[in-house]
Design a protein that fits this description.
single chain; mainly alpha
Length: 82
């Protein structure tokens, strides 16, 4: 980028050219930021969906483990009766 000392040496047309280049850079960075923001939003929604899915699977596994625990207790009780 041009330093402040260099800018003082430029005539108005050259300054307009520099300003136009800087505006182009700002617009480009703004578009890039917009793309990254949309990508981050998609990833955030995907992470939320996966967290909910994991939560459901975790609840299901807990329920199944409890059922297995009850069955183990029942088998142990029946084994004692034999």
């Amino acid at each position: 980028m041009t330093s402040q000392a260099d800018l003082k040496q430029l005539d108005p047309d050259q300054l307009r050219t520099v300003a136009a280049q800087l505006l182009q850079q700002v617009q480009s960075k703004d578009q890039e930021l917009g793309r990254k923001d949309r990508e981050l939003g998609r990833k955030d929604r995907e992470l939320g969906r996966k967290n909910r899915e994991l939560g459901r699977k975790n609840q299901e596994l807990r329920r199944k483990n409890q059922e297995l625990g009850h069955k183990d207790q029942e088998i142990a009780r029946q084994s004692k009766e034999i």
